Amino acid sequence: MPHRPLARAVTALAALVATTLAVLLVPGTAQAAAIHYVALGDSYSSGVGAGSYDPNTCLRSSKSYTSLWAQQHAVASYKFPACGGAKTDDVLNEQVGSLDATTTLVTITIGGNDAGFSSILENCRFGSESDCANRVNEAKTFATTVLPGRLDTTYAEIRNRAPNARLIVLGYPRLFETGSCGLLGMSKSKRIILNEAADLLAQVTADRAAAAGATFSDTRSYFAGHGVCASTPWIKDVTGLIEAYHPNADGYRLGYLPALNAVTG
Question: SGNH hydrolase-type esterase domain: from which residue to which, for each copy (predicted)?
Answer without folding.
Answer: 39-254
